[in-house]
Amino acid sequence: MKNFKYIIGVFLTFLMLFTSCQDDNVEFGDLIAPTNIQLSVDIVGADATNPNGDGSGTVNFTATADNVTAIHFVVQNTTKLAPGGVISHDFTQLGLNTYPVTVIAFGTGGVSSSKTFEVEVLSTYSPPADLLTMLTADSQRTWRIKAEAKPHFGLGPVGGSTPFEWYSAGANDKVGTGMYDDRYTFNIDGTFTAVTNGTVFGREVLIDELGGSGGTADGADILNYVYGDYTEQWSLTAPGGVETISFTGLAFVGYYTGGNHKYIIHSRSSNEMVLTTTDGNNGFNWWFTLVPE
Questions:
Q1: pLDDT tens digits, residue range 213-236?
Q2: Is residue 285 within 8 Å of residue 155, measured between CB atoms?
Q3: Are the CB atoms for 256 and 208 separated by under 8 Å?
Q4: Residues 6 or more apart whose Cβ sits within 8 Å of residue 214
């Protein structure tokens, strides 16, 4: 009888282990590493006469791979998430320089493959002194959304040149959304610090890129999404002669829209600037008026 009980115990233990292994296989599936990583490089302004670009230093990358579920890039020691395998990057080191660009392709089960490419880019843009002074006060300067006046936040068509063409929020219209208490500091050393006071404002689905939590849905807006203070880098370029602020990582101003985290300076004075950016859905251009704190 003792031997019979022992055999039954061993059988049940084996059955449990077998069932557990079956469950694990169902959960994780096959581990397939991506292959055939390819990179398409579009240097802004490049032509037969200027093969390394127009001097703006802006490059658009498109990566593909077989059996891929997600793609990241590593450019100038910065990791960039790439929805759809597409990113834009500004190389601001003056002169003609060669840079390594690593594409990391993720497959099922989280396994990954990588491949490094090289790109030769010309950068000749040196920001005007008055622009640097406006942004940083030659040291650091903190900005906020100009909530007290219309227009300060709105939208229009992608590529539109008329500020706030389709919608413009009235004075203090977005109180309680998590936007008006945010502060943005531009430092002369290229660092950008955002103080969120715990919550931010942004577009549904896109705002989840931040990795925060909570928030309240109001149509397509997410109010008071929980997200902490952060520090990134900022730089200036002027592709096609258009002054543009570029942020690293997921940095943003006013309302989170995803996209390429580049903000065209539509207009500026010593104490005010109007910025616009295209959202990650390529649905709208979003507009912001900022003033110093």
A1: 999 999 999 999 999 999 999 999
A2: yes
A3: no
A4: 224, 225, 226
- Helices and strands (DSSP H and E) totals, the chain: 2, 20
62 φ/ψ sector (left φ>0, alpha ψ -120 to 50, else beta): beta
Q: What is the rounded CA–CA span in Å between residue 9 and residue 3? A: 10
- Using an 8 Å Cβ cutoff, are 52 and 44 in contact? no
Contacting residues for 124 by C-beta, under 8 A, at least 6 apart: 55, 94, 95
Predicted confidence (pLDDT) per residue in 239-264, tens digit: 888 999 999 889 999 999 999 899 99
- Averaged confidence pLDDT in the chain: 90
| Alpha-carbon torsion, ordered 78, 82, 88, 89, to 10 deg | 10
Distance in angstroms (rounded) separating the CA atoms of residues 270 and 282: 31
The Cα-based distances of 255 to 143, 177, 232, 251, 290 in angstroms read 14, 10, 17, 11, 12
E strand or H helix that includes residue 190 = none
Evaluate if residue 28 carries a pLDDT over 60.
no
Single-letter amino acid, residue 291: V
* Interatomic CA distance for residues 274 and 254, integer angstroms: 12
**CATH number for the domain whose boundaries are 35-123:** 2.60.40.10
pLDDT bin (cut points 50, 70, 90) of residue 4 is: very low
pLDDT per position as a tens digit, 103-134: 999 999 889 999 999 999 999 989 999 999 99
User: Can you give the residue ranges of every domain in the chain?
Assistant: 35-123, 129-292
